[in-house]
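Workshop exercise sheet. Pairs work together: one partner reads the sequence aloud, the other fills in the structure field after running the prediction. Swap roles for the next sheet.
Pair: D.N. / O.F.
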Amino acid sequence: YVHACQHTSTCVWVGATKNSQMEVIQIVSECDRKSCNIIEFRDYKLIYKRYASLYFSFCVSVSDNELMYLEIIHLFVELLDRYFESICELDLVFNFHKIFIIIDEMFLAGEIQETSKRTIISRLEEMERVKR
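Structure field:
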């Protein structure tokens, strides 16, 4: 599942139970900024990264490439920054539906589908034009 969260627990979740959500928030918020960004979590790996006061995390299979997901988190944050012109907690709260659109452009059936920032942004811009 995907998780984007501010330290105060304003979160956008994809595919996580309430218990898992609370566990992830607790684990990630207790981590030292200098600690490893990859944590064993149940039968999975929890991969997270902090940007200012926002946390972004993925819970992935133990066989998945951790570094790839750290890069995907960075790409996701860059897309959010570009789309929202500097992402903040309020963007997560009031535009969660747009965040899901970005996630849908990046992933298909839980697998990475698109990694081109240019392609994703052009699709988002096209959706905005059609919506007007």
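Discussion prompt: The longest strand covers residues 44-51. What would you look at next?
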